[in-house]
Here is the input.
Amino acid sequence: MNPNKSKILRVAVPTPLRQSFDYLLPIGCGLDRLQPGVRVRVPFQHRQLIAILLEICDESAVPAHRLKQAIEIIDETPVITADILELCLWAADYYHHPIGDVLECALPVLLRQGKPVEASMESYWRLTAAGRAVDLSSLTRAKKQIDVLKALALHEEGMTKRQLKELNVSGAVLKAVCEKAWVEEIRKSSSLAGLLPSAHSNVIESPLIMNAEQQTALDAILQTQNNFQVLLLDGVTGSGKTEVYLQAIANVLEAQKQVLVLVPEIGLTPQTIQRFRQRFSAPVVALHSGLTDKERLNAWISAQTGEAKIIIGTRSAIFSPFKNLGLIIVDEEHDLSFKQQEGFRYHARDLAIMRARAHQIPIVLGSATPSLESLCRALQDRYQHLHLRQRAGVAVQPNYCVLDIRNSFIEEGLSQPLLTAMREHLQNGDQVMLFLNRRGFAPVLMCHACGWTAKCKRCDARMTFHHSPRRLHCHHCDSQRPVFSKCEDCNQKDLQIIGLGTERLEQAIQKYFPEYSIARIDRDSTQRKGSMEDLLDGIHSGEHKILIGTQMLAKGHHFPNVTLVGIIDADGGFFSSDFRAVERMGQLVLQVAGRAGRVTKPGTVLIQTHHPDHPLLQQLLRESYGYFAATLLKEREGAALPPYAFLALFRAEAHSQEQAMQFLQQIKNVAASLGESIPLWGPVPAPMARRSGRFRVQLLLQSAQRPLLQRCLKRLLPEIEKLPSKQQVRWSLDVDPLEMF
Ligand code: ADP
Ligand code: ZN
Ligand code: ZN
Here is the structure.
């Protein structure tokens, strides 16, 4: 009898079930060279699914006659390499999320679909022997042809049409040199095709001379090479953190290793990539939402083969395979976008730390406004704390000025002192940036006769009035409806538009400063592909003088000619029920302010508020983020909140609030019966109790000890899976939740 026959394939299947599944080997399939991490096609509930092999076992708890045969083993070598498998298993365990779903998140779409691990074929043009022998001086009348031959002489491996086009080589010229048999087309597969930097950006910029603090930080990073160490690079905006990254990377590349750079979701990526490409001739690959599935797979392959040396990507890039990873950098580590807010709710920064530990390599967390979590660990000496307290080069920190707008005349959100300052800076030829974190025209449409306001029919929320296109838009469930000229309640025509959004601010500014061009950057104005780039180009070229934006404008951008930043409303953070609101407000104010005066011109930041004397605001502006954060940390410690405690949040949604409440109450009862001393808060309706037509309820678990919380969750989840009432609700568990809605 074939001894293989009794072997069992234990696989992860992409389903929401928190378990693995056992299959028999496919017919005729041997065990030799079969490794965990390969894809296996399996029959699953009348379908075929692509599963990942977790392990090969001798026995199964499933009776032999019920075991099904797997259909085929797709890969010879694992698509989920051992290190990523380990990371995913850890994450599935820590976030209590189904392993099948975790592994699915870790793979490019094409691989999830069962496609081969194969880079796409691409056409390249390269010189022939005859082409190399051409005497260029004899070609004086064909300058364009000379250019092609010269360029191709520099790129023996050949160039793609796109790269040639970037050098202004037209199809006609290419055809001409091909007809003379100087250039030939070859087809080859390259995982880097279409992802490589354009040919002319191979001009390599030299490193800057670092100041003392930068040098100290760099030395500290380099000292940890080949060891696991978390380093918090805590440097004010414009202090040259990126320069430190670049020089650290140069060292890692010299050691023939690869680097992973994680960046927040939006806006930031194009500029960052450019800076990296200007510095290194080594292939830089960017993983962002603009890639096609094919390009994504190519990038993935190039990281795995080691062809790509630097991978820059958003959250999910943490799952990229590497041949030889030497350093991880998480830029703007405080940024919320590193935490996935639905499905598999992982935090990419935290996974990055786990990954660095597994590889025994350093990880640098960089920010001007570190999260309290990271700061706390740095203060406890668990992370190495590196400071950059001064702006790099000749730039200086901006001047902050709080504008007390109590009782003052405000029109469309703009106080007189702000308007006066804007005029001054604009007349000097400088750029001005206004920050307002609310898109649309106005947050409230109200009837003056009866007090009716336009509410979303599916959420406990008002609909935002948008001017162009004219509509009411719920920013929570995305539903939209037309604006009627009459009150939907009393039929009177006296509708008022109350409050301020970026659209309305733009309109007001246009009225005050008709002679200047405005760039508005928010989710609405950047929806069309490429529109963000166009707006940024217009800002950098100086075409737009006034910049208006939501937090999309606050992140990581570098606008050398912005000398004035106006924060239209700094008060929101003080009134939120979320215990993290003040931390966020502080981070946002400093990040926005950090856009001002980043080169030779000093920057001014004007902050409009009704609470000019608020001690935390004062501390933030007069002292530093460090002091502000220290005060917040004391408060958190006193209240036993993160980072001094650990949270897990159960959320449930149902068609009635009662159903959702009952379900979480059952979880609470089970949790209480476990006999663990874990405080449980709730169930209570979520701050927004109804969203997209569903009632939302939450239950919070809190503990000062992470292992205790983890143990409790581990015991709890199998019990929850048994609750019959789970059929009536949609529920989720969020470990280390960052948002409490
Ligand atoms: P951060 O990432 O901390 O916001 P950047 O790295 O973007 O800061 O640096 C801000 C500006 O300062 C950039 O224009 C950069 O080129 C410049 N810069 C950085 N380090 C130095 C240095 N040592 N000398 C001169 N200019 C520098
Ligand atoms: Zn009315
Ligand atoms: Zn809604």
Observations:
- The longest helix spans residues 657-673.
- The longest strand covers residues 680-691.
